[in-house]
Amino acid sequence: MPELMHQLVFNIFSDKEEGIYHRFRDFRDKVFAPLCIFLARLGVKPDHLSYFSLFLAIPIVFFLASVPWISFLFLALSVIADMLDGCLARCQHHQSQRGSLLDIGCDHAVFLIVMFSFIFFQMTSPFWMSLYLVNYTILLFMVLTMRSLQLHVIPVIRSKFYIYLVFLIWLITGYNYFDPVLVFFSIYMIITNVFLFHKLRCSLS
Hints:
By secondary structure, the protein is an all-alpha fold. Helix content is 80%, strand content 0%.
């Protein structure tokens, strides 16, 4: 079980994506190194940043309807905190399966809260957002399962930040492109999930 959990936590990318991720992670560690050293001196732990990023979901939702720009700034701060927790863990040599699982859990919890808030405030179609979230969850599960079984996974589009970008475009221009983007990613992920499921099924005896 510990070995399986290690695979589930650390292998959420395809083979090609994992190499790109490690290069980006090394670059990010260098950029945030001074801040991580400062936070470490203050006694801040990686888990604190993970919980802080999750806590920021409260002002994100609170300001979304009244002052969406402030909501987006809190969302950006949550993303930064999510990136910092891994950097801080490596800086302090405190990497662990538990910390990585908390990082992933908080990251996706914030994402789901924001997406459901878009539905609640009628910024998106409930149908397309629901279809998108269902397939997003299935895709994540499929990738985790296939990587844990050491199966080859094709590179997939990571759509989360594209949705955040659409949010920013709406704030700047006033044009709401949520539904067209959700339609595209929903169809894309349905096709990808069917392909991955077929490959996973064929690999089983």
